[in-house]
Prior knowledge:
This protein is an alpha+beta fold. It is built from 14 helices and 22 strands. It has helices at residues 61-70, 120-133, 168-171, 243-251, 264-271, 303-312, 315-322, 344-349, 354-363, 385-398, 411-419, 438-445, 458-469, 478-491; strands spanning 5-7, 10-11, 14-15, 35-39, 75-76, 85-86, 89-94, 101-106, 146-152, 156-161, 202-209, 212-220, 234-239, 257-258, 278-293, 327-329, 370-377, 402-409, 425-430, 494-507, 510-511, 529-530. Strands 1, 4, 11, 12, 13, 14, 15, 16, 17, 18, 19 and 20 form a 12-stranded mixed β-sheet that branches. A hairpin with a 6-residue loop joins strand 7 and strand 8 (101-106). It is globular, with a radius of gyration of 23 Å.
Amino acid sequence: MNRKTLVLPAVAGLLTPVLAACGGSDSGSKSGDAIVVGTTDQFTATKDAPAPLDPAYAYDVGTWNILRQSVQTLMAQPKGEGEPVPEAAESCSFTDSGSERYACKLREGLTFANGDPVTAEDVKYSIERALRINADSGVSALLNTIDTIETQGDREVVFHLKTADATFPYKLSTPVAGIVNPKDYQKDKLRDGFAIDGSGPYTFEAEVENNAIVSATFTKNPSYKGSVKVNNDKVELRAFADADAMGTAIDHGDIDVMTRTMSPAQIQKLDGGSDEKVDLVDMPGLEIRYLAFNTDASSVKSKAVRQAMAQIINRGELVSKVYGTQAEPLYSLVPATVTGHSNAFFNKYGNPSVDKAKGLLSKAGITTPVKLTLHYTTDHYGSATKQEFQVLQKQLNDSGLFDVSIEGHPWATFRPAERKGEYDVYGMGWFPDFPDADNFLAPFLDKNNFLGSPYANGTIQRSLIPQSRREADRLGASKSLTEIQDIVAEDVPVLPLWQGKQYVAARDDITGVAYALNSSSTLQLWELGRGVSG
């Protein structure tokens, strides 16, 4: 094909793919019939996180993308636009007018990959297990509106909620609600290591070295019953140390597909059509990046310090220098394409101003320069993260109001340290669990939040989040959502920086690439296939 970038438009803030990569004659991967997919995600078992692939623990885009291939959920997000669709369930719906009782009926004849039947009791066991374990990853908070679960026979399960939650169907589409076999997953203990047993489209087997996955094989599950059509028999996922190594592999034909995270330079090169055998798919994404604060730490405990940072940081310059057209400045936790978004930070702070920041610090009696260390992860969000933090460091230090140093850490140590409150200021990314404004706010601001942040606002937790969840029509939730975003801009427990597009690169005989990711960055390996010359 002549044009190597396929731009997929968004409709109502959600991904609606309309094109797929064209076929080609070059064979690509040297791994037989398996389609080989590269990633820079790292999957490591550590003392602090010995069970990275347990649905009751996993809570990052990489591990979720493994679980979504192998563990079924009652509901699933569609490959394009729209609300969740039944997956392990035959049907699901609210059975009351107040969005507090949700009932699902399982598909008939549903089995785990080993042949054991999947029953309503297994669903109940799996979700109650995640809530009971309450892992320190914070993932169980997604299920915190559940009060009780009852079963009716082998195929019907009913969720009674503590409060109205119109987003509950989305939550049942996330891996924390994955259905596991009680024979393989203990009731009160996480399953250490890298084994997965489920009823999803694929079975899973990992090759592990030094407590880390180097490659994983997904083999089509012949007993799978669900909503997706599996277009291949086998996919291999290979983990690379960095984007350059992954790029070399696709150039040599050792892999067929590159996913997250390619470097900005790689994307720019492929966008220019320099490689006739590799196509780049460019699609809207809902990924965001932000700074988070330990609001109990002495260096940033004063709101004025956090506000001054919000007043100084120049998002436009940051994006231009590091990501170019691959990202856009973000002035709220909620991306601009999601219903309920408001430019809360721009509304409050306007354009960057050192004078205004100086006034904020002076009024609060803060001695300058404020000494801070910004922490970032070296291997989780792509190779450009270091450059991003160098730009942030320079912006803050050039103001004369801050004395900032930066430190990078591998994800395996970064995430546990962040959860323990060891960092005063640190950089994080967010790939939504589901494409709704609630999921860009509640995980950071509700009780038992994802970050383990000490920040708590009673109005948000007790009033505004519950109000927003009562609205089945998400436009109706906009008032509550806007108020939440305004409070965040005032208190700055987190500081949004940018939102990005998402990219997949594939050798030109691979089909289905345009559907390989949905708007929530969910990897859908079952969409991939091999085409013919054309």
